[in-house]
Amino acid sequence: MEIYNENAYDLLDRQHLEIPLEQWNKITMFEDDDGHIHLRNLSVHHCQTEQQGIDLLMMGNFIRKVSSTPMNQCSSRSHCIFTITFEGYEKDTDFNFVSKLHLVDLAGSERISKTQLEGSLLNETKYINLSLTYLEQVIVALKEKMTNKRTHI
Questions:
Q1: Which of 32, 59, 21 is nearest to 43 (CA)?
Q2: pTM of this prediction?
């Protein structure tokens, strides 16, 4: 999943290789009656080998939004989340296990005054910096909740 300019998109949708970003389906989040969070328009791919998983990771990285900026020749212009769910079982005991690994790559913040960006790059930078500010606020709130200085995040 890519978060670009405050919208989330599925990086593993093969149609995205052929159509412009403006036509991509946005991922929407909703909560069901049991309080579980779901993401609509986000695909799930089943892999039997490590290579299949690596191929998907590389495909998503290829589709991801990047641009050249004065500070970085290949700057990621979005945040990216790649989640791997491992499922296994022991044949002798019927013991099942499920583990999740979330790989997160955050776009780096840039000082607008130093880069002198204009147009779409300036707009992207504003969204990147704003989202990183929100992330910082959540982390501070989580820390404050642990020390009983806050009850709500």
A1: 59
A2: 0.77
